[in-house]
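Backbone shape codes:
***
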Amino acid sequence: MYTSFHLKANELDDKILKSIKALFKSKRISIIVEEEMDETEYLLSTDANRKHLEDAIKNVKQGKTTKVDIDKYLRK
């Protein structure tokens, strides 16, 4: 079984441990703690993504956009 908890470090408390113990009972488990990236950090985390987003922003500012009729695709 795989369970993921997403919370702030200051939200850690005994309830979390009790929840984990209840879910996994006497099974062996691994606990890995990692810092999460927010969406912006993630999207800018590679040079290729950063360039693509910067180019897209530049295009919007220059009025280089394309209108899409979303209803056309929803009707299919």
